[in-house]
Amino acid sequence: MKKEKATANNGVRSYYETFEVRQDATTDEIERAYRKAKSVYSDESVALYSLYSGEERKQKLLELSDIYNTLSDPAKRKSYDESLRKERTAPSREWDSGSINAGRDAFEEYSEVDAFKDRITLRRALSVAEQDQMATEKFRILFNRLEQICLKGSVKSIAVTSAVKGEGKTTTAMNLAFIMATEFKKKVLVIESDFRNPSISSEYLNMGRLHGLIDVLKGDADIRSAINRLEDTNLHFLPARCSVKNSSLLLDSPGMRSVLSRSKEDFDYVIVDSPPIFPLVDVSILSKCVDGMLLVVKAGATPKDIVKKAVRSLPKDNLLGIVLNCADSIHMNKYYY
Ligand SMILES: Nc1ncnc2c1ncn2[C@@H]1O[C@H](COP(=O)(O)OP(=O)(O)OP(=O)(O)O)[C@@H](O)[C@H]1O
Ligand SMILES: [Mg+2]
User: Fold this and answer.
1) Level-2 CATH architecture, domain 97-336
2) DSSP string across 35-102
3) Nearest ligand 1 atom to alpha carbon 194
4) 300 Cβ inside 6 Å of ligand 1
5) Any idea which fold 15-91 has?
């Protein structure tokens, strides 16, 4: 179904976008969309794996019910449509302006500062940087296969996701990006988009910059002050730095779309360390802004049904492949692609 653009001007999703319906959707369509949206946050769905606390889910359900009450009442809907129309014609603010619009220049300026020696080092050793031959070979194979697909489909930005938390997304993203930059001499940017549960600056970077992507998206910092380059490499990081609860709002902002599209112009590859797919909202937003998705599955840990559900939830032509990550300490670490 082709969606009519109905984004509120300040970057907040319109009610229609939240329900994923056209602006001229019928009452029946609104009703179906409401039921579908509700099921994501209800107890019977994937709540066990949800990143939302019980309280947050309750809040979400209340929001959905408010939206439904507005859209199902003709008078309220008319007045909402009118406010949407006014917002769209009003001058844009916040994420549309300032530092984000300067994003392209910022990337250019950053890349021109080759003489500038970043002192950023890794706090935590990566398998591929530790001369772990087995892991290195597996990431080499992963990159070779990915590159064939990427070259064929002009894919530059790749989101690394998984069905649920803790399956090895960040480990895969970091090792893959490292080998791309050091061994294959690609200019790579790792963007951290797991805004609820960021780990790159706290776990991986030594002496990283003070600002992160969240500050940039909120308009509190320039992108230049948030990009980190790993000493003596062409590997760059744009970590989130702090966490936020309303991650979908920031992920769905014009600023985020702008960072993702502009970074593709300046880097050979952009690896997006993403949140898990469930409870759906964040990754479904991201999947529209990247060229492809890589699904990490923790072998022997994630139930098959959950993996199947995760695969089904991704846009079909966006899934580049599945990385089977077996973190079983008894066996050797395995990465299949
Ligand atoms: N192949 C592996 N071998 C050993 N340990 C691993 C492997 N993959 C991941 N781990 C470990 O498992 C833990 C979770 O991995 P990681 O942080 O990469 O997962 P994640 O999917 O990014 O998690 P989150 O959803 O919390 O962001 C980490 O402690 C990591 O070091
Ligand atoms: Mg992670």
Assistant:
1) 3-Layer(aba) Sandwich (3.40)
2) HHHHHHHSTTSSGGG-SS-HHHHHHHHHHHHHHHHHHHSHHHHHHHHHHHHHHHHSPP-GGGSTTTTT
3) 27
4) no
5) Helix Hairpins (1.10.287)
